[in-house]
Amino acid sequence: MILETTQQALQALFAGSVPADEAEAGTPRGNGVLTRDYKTHGYHLDAQVDAAQLLAAVTILDEGGFFIESITGVDWIKENQLEVIYDFSRYDFDACRVVIRTRIPRDKPEVPTISTIYAGANWHERETHDFFGIKFAGHPHLVPLLLPEDADFHPLLKDFKA
Amino acid sequence: MSAPIQLRPDETFLLNVGPQHPATHGVLRVKMQMDGEYIVKAETVLGYVHRMHEKMGENRTYAQYLPNLSRLDYLGALGYTHGHVLAIERAAGIEVPERAEYIRAITVELNRVASHLFWFGAFVMDLGGFSPLMYAIQDREHILDMLEAVTGARLTYCYYRFGGLYNDVDDDFIEAAKRFIPRMRKSLKKYDALVSGNIIFQKRLEGIAPVSAEMCRKYGATGPVARGSGINFDVRKNEPYSVYPEFDFDVPVYHECDSLARYKVRMDEMEQSLRIIEQGLETLPDGPIMAEKKPKNIKLPVGDYYQAVETARGSFGIRIVSDGDKNAYRLKLRSPTYSNMHLFDEACEGMLIMDALAFMGSLDLVIPEIDR
User: Which pLDDT score, from 0 to 100, does residue B169 have?
Assistant: First the structure.
C-alpha cells in the first residue's frame, strides 16, 4: 500500500517518464523511479533524481513517515560523476525500502543538505564529505567527522593514492 | 579580606569527556558546554578508531572481507558477519541449507545474549554498582566457551561462509547450549532481584533522558533505543530473513522513552533470545551445512544490493554496489550505534551530566562500530 503511494508521489516529480534500467540496457540510467525485486536487491523503490529535486523527494519520504538509514556516495570515475545515495526505510510492518540517488559532476560535487529535514543526516553528510569531498550546501557544520580534523584527502575517490 | 569569588551569571565552561574516559566505553569524545552541572550544548567527536573498513571492502574480494565484519562490533560480531553473508547470498542467488541457517540463528542469538550481558554489567557499573558486572561476565563466559569450541574464536568470529558454515556443531555444543538455557533463566531472575528493583538504580533512570519516537525517526535510531521509545521495530520481524519466521518469539517494546525503558527492553530481549535458541535446538534439522552449488570465486551481477539484519544494537545494513568484478565497487556499512549515538547531542541538552552519562550507557555504545 505505502509502496504504491510513495511510488506515485515520487513518480509525480518526473511527469510520468519511466527510465531504462542500466543493468538491462547497458547505458547509464536516466532520472526516474524504478521498482526493484526485493528478493535479489533488498529494496523496493529506486528513484534517481536531479540534485535540484532532492529536497522535494526527501520531503515526500519525510511526510510518508520514513526514517533515514544512511547516506553514502559512489565514485563513477569513468563517467566523471559522483553519486550520492540516500537510504530510507520504515518502522511498520509494511516493509518498504526506498533509495534516492542523484548524480553530480565530479569537478563540481555539490548537493543541498537534507539535514534541515532529517536531523540525522548531519553525520552521514559529514562522513560522505570526508570520503568523497562532496559538498552539502547549507550544512551547518561540514567539518571532518571520521577523518583527522586537518584531512584534505578523500579516500573513497577511485583516484586516491595513499 | 579578599573579595568573594563571583562568576558572571551567564558564564559557561567547556568540558571534555573522553576520548579516554571510562564512561564512554572506548575512544569516544564529547565536547560539552557546561553551565554548572547542566549541559548547555554537546558535540560528539568521532574518528578515534576509524579504520576505513569501507575502503578495505573495495580492495578485497568478498571472501577476504569476511574477517573485517567481526571487527566492527566486538561484543556481537556474529550478527554483522551474518549480514554480510546474507547480502552476498541474496545477490549471487546462493541457497543455504536449512541446518546451516538454524545454526546461524542459534549462534547469533547466543552472541546477542552475550552482548546484552556485557552491556548489563557495564551499564550498572556506570551507575555505581560493581558486582553485577562480575556475575554477567561469568554467564557470558559460558557463551564464549561454547562459541569458541564451534567457531574457533572468542570475539572476532569468522564462522559463516557464503552458502553455509565453516564447521558443523557437535553434540557437546548442543548439550552445553541446552544446559545453558535454564541456567541463564535463573540468572535473569537473579539480575532482576539484584538490580531492577533497586531504588537508586530506578531514580537514576526513570523519566531521565526521554527520546521521543519522532526523534528516533529523524535520526534513524533502531534496536533497543527505538523499542524503548514505543517503536515496535525489529528487523527479524519487520523484514524477516534467515529462519526467524520459523521461531515463536516476541519483540519487547516499552513506551516510557526513558533510560529505564531501554534497560528493560534489553533485559527482556535476553529471554526472547533464549526462546529462539531453545526452539532452534529442538528443531535443528539434519543435513549438510554447506551449499552444494557455489561458485569458487564469487562475482556479483552488476547492480546494488542491500541487506539489513537485527544485531544486538539495532539494524545493521550493508550496501554493496557491484560492477561485476570479484571485489565490491563500493561497500557501505550502516552501523546502528552510529545513528543511535547521533541523537545524543540533541537529547542531552539541558541534562545533568550524571544523567547524560547514564543515558550514554543506555545507548549501548561500541565505538569501533561507530567509527568503522
Answer: 87
Q: Tally Cβ neighbours within 10 Å of residue B95.
A: 12
A159 touches chain B (CB under 8 A): no
Q: What CATH number corresponds to the domain at position B58?
A: 1.10.645.10
Give the pLDDT mean for B175-187: 92
Q: If you average pLDDT over residues B339-346, what whole number do you get?
A: 90
**Three cell numbers at B222?**
533502531
Minimum CA–CA partner of A147 in chain B: B47
Confidence bin at B13 (pLDDT 50/70/90): confident
CB contact under 8 A, B218 and A122: no
From B332, which residue of chain A is nearest by alpha-carbon distance?
A72
Bridge-based pairing state of the strands A98-105 and A81-89: antiparallel
The boundaries of the domain holding residue B72 are: 13-331+344-371
The residue assigned the cell 525489529 is B234
Residues of B in contact with A95 (CB under 8 A): 238-239
Domain that holds residue A46: 2-111
User: Which is it for strands A135-137 and B13-17: parallel, antiparallel or unpaired?
Assistant: unpaired
How far does the CA of residue A67 sit from the closest CA of chain B (Å)? 5
Q: Does B99 map to a domain? A: yes
- Count of the separate structural domains present in chain A: 1
